[in-house]
Amino acid sequence: MVMAQSLFKVLKDRQPERPLDVLAPEWSLPIVARMPEIRAGVASETAHGEIGLATRRSIAAGLRGRYDRAIVMPRSFKAALIPWFAGIPVRTGFRGETRFVLINDLRPFDRQVLDQTVKRFVALGLDTGEALPVELPDPSLQISTDNQARSLAALGLDLGRPVVAMMPGAEYGPAKCWPLEYFTELAARLDAAGYAVWVLGSHKDAGAGEQIAAGSRALNLCGRTSLEDVIDLLAACEQAVSNDSGLMHIAAAVGIRVHGIYGSSSPKFTPPLTKSREIHEIDLECRPCFERECPLGHLRCLKDLSVERIFEKVIDF
């Protein structure tokens, strides 16, 4: 969702007066609400992977007659159903999953040219055959200073020391996750160097946050914040150290220094979209494999990435 803002910026720059709405999973709408290009977010109520024809028809009924174009960003058959049910005249999307009726403005999908997620998104907003801009706009989420102050007070946080956020989770799987003992050692070293450390994530990451906090003076905030709160708390930090995850992209979009850790995935495909970034990866023949778990069982792409290396880059900022 964060990377999609690059497309929204391109569309708004070309047609400033044309309103843009976003149909997306309800959990992601707090991110959409922080994008000034977007007029409104509309919740898609189907579960991940669910066809849900009745639900999609119901959502489409509420959209009928309100739009003249839909840009379908996912390449799946299911993603194209609601715009088609809603009778939106122009439905733009890539070729894929036999969508020839559902998508009537079909675009070719060239993996060589569109070698990054953000490029694939932006390409759908261009005219047919138009080349990608040399430089794509980076996402930039709006910050609520009022909510930031409320969140800091509610959690008992202060900004007396520069703050480094740590995001040890990655929804995709363990092959994206730097070892927790490395996060813990880094947190202890940063504390000794004069930094405060906040561990951020969902309730699923609470155990990881507890482990890091148990071995350092880091504050475990996992599961104690809403998505809106996380956006504003990250903006109060100086830097973030994160696995390749959604929170890494949010950190990039609020304008702080991002240290992105890559194991099975690749920064060539999903880099943090900011000029203020450090990429941490190991050059191995077996990576990137894009697997959820290490197929060779050694996880060297993450275990060989030293705490010292990232610590030095953080304190050098």
Description of the molecule:
- The radius of gyration is 21 Å and the shape is globular.
- It has twelve helices and eleven strands.
- The two termini are 28 Å apart.
- The chain has a six-stranded parallel beta sheet with strand order 8-7-6-9-10-11, with helices on both faces. The chain has a three-stranded parallel beta sheet with strand order 3-4-5, with no helix packed on it.
- Helix 4 links the parallel strand 3 and strand 4.
- The relative contact order is 0.12.
- Helix 1 runs parallel beside helix 5, helix 6 packs across helix 9 and helix 7 crosses helix 8.
- The model has no long low-confidence stretch (mean pLDDT 95).
- By secondary structure, it is α/β, with parallel strands linked by helices.
What are the salient characteristics of this protein?
six-stranded parallel β-sheet; alpha/beta
Secondary structure tally: strands: 11
Order the strands across the largest sheet as they lie in space: 8-7-6-9-10-11
Low-confidence stretches: none
Measured between the Cα atoms of the first and last residue, the distance is 28 Å
> Which outline best applies?
globular
Largest sheet composition: 6 strands, parallel
**Structural class category:** alpha/beta
